[in-house]
Amino acid sequence: MLHPNLEHLEISATPLDHSTHIAKTLLPKLSAACRSLESIHIGPDAINSSPPVQAQIMSEILDANPTVKDVSVMNAGFRGTDILFRWLGQRPGLEALELDLDPGTQLLPFIQDPGLPANSFSSLLRLHVMCYPEIALALPALLPNVEKLSFDLARMPDHAPVESDIAFLDKLLYTLTRCQRLKSVKANIGLLSASFPSSETLPILHGASLVAFASACPNLTDLALLVSKPAAINASCISSTDFLQFCRLMPRLMQLDLELHPQTTIALEECALNLLGEHCPQLEVLRLKVALQLPSLTTIEDEPKLAYGSEALGAASTQMEPTIYEYGVVYIGAEEAAVRTSSPTAPLFARLNHLALARPQTVLSVAASTYATSISSQSSSITDPWLEEELVRSWAHSLLVHFPRLDILEAWGDWTGQENDSMNYFLPLEEPLASIWEFLSGVEQDLWDDGQPHTTEGPESWDDDFEQGVSVRSSGDWDRASLVNEYPGSAGSGYLETCDEEPEDMITPVDDRNHWFTKAEDAQTTLPVKPDDQNMHALSDRVGDVTLH
């Protein structure tokens, strides 16, 4: 396994008791046996922190291997990583570094030292650090050529609140304008104090800082701004004009991940998707925690034809068995309905494969009446089946037209901002109506149904198992064991009924059990079948309480 030409060494394992032996004996021997190493990665908790191992050992190993240009010791159990960071700053040829710095701000004097050599970290292209926010704000001054920058930001849990933390994201983006070669920026804000960030105190992001950062870094392809749960980013100071300027400045953007609080993004709900689709054509991953409305997507080629009131309803009812490709996108208001038909257009998100958005408030959603509603929300008390049908169709239409390569549709919380869990819907284009209904309703995706009708006939029937003497130890019988002798199928019924309990002194009859496994053909019934989502009538069976006309 080990040989002199080995270029990459990675150690990732469960923490071992003899951490000192590993760090002082094993690692030096491994590096000495591989004289052509280009990267050394030590995985999280690969070295037990008790007794602590000083990071100085890593500098000795790297000294003996001058060819190493990629170092990763993130959460590896070393102590004194600040010293290692300072030493690595003078290492020529270092291109990539992942490191968790010591808790605190003791590294600031080194970073801000005016006498620091100008060539410190001059070759560094990729940096991922875990540090205090004060360190993150000072680091960009040392990174003139960095292309990929990732911050995991946190303080000790008992740290006193810092008032300026609320504007940290703005300050970080302004600071990063120095790094004009940036292609990727990721910032994940953890706990900076016991009470920040939280569901009540959110870090704020202004549109001006977002635009200034985009203007200074035109080569950016990946931007992620995240906050630990249950908090999110306050985006109330980002206007539609700010977002338009940001999108225009980001033509190379491929991944955008913004964990905004949905209740602060009302200004972006109607315009964000259209602006991103028009100005960021290379997007592949879009995770925007905003209650976006897919039916609001438009293109320049669209020439909507509007009909109001009874005319719109009449136009919709004249089509018999319409398919999703034939049916216009329908928008329902409180007192009017508009049917829009459009000619075939190019998709706005031709490359997108992952779309995440906050589940919006619709007629399919359920929420407490105390939650604030957005400008595009509809009352959850409306249960008109026709509205539900049109809602699902309009969303599915936009999904098919504008997201031809979508593999994952993700519900990233909901419009209230109270729900923070994510729910993924895989391959939504294969069953668009079903996937949209599940997404808007907030139910999990059905991944087990293969789409084929299931009946009680065939080799899987209980009667066949009984007559063939299937063993109670067999795997096939195990799956149905809980039903046998408790929920027998009665003759003439395709459903299961509960048996009356036996008296304690009654001997369970053995010879009469054959009638419990009545053949399905005698009952002339079949089990429920998942509908074909290409047919809207089948969708009504799936929805349950929706009746189609």
From TrEMBL:
CC terms in the record's Gene Ontology section: SCF ubiquitin ligase complex
InterPro entries: LRR_dom_sf
Bias-annotated ranges (Basic and acidic residues): 530-549
Domain of life: Eukaryota
Gene Ontology BP annotations: SCF-dependent proteasomal ubiquitin-dependent protein catabolic process
Residue span of region Disordered: 527-549
Protein name: Uncharacterized protein
The species this protein was found in: Phaeosphaeria nodorum (strain SN15 / ATCC MYA-4574 / FGSC 10173)
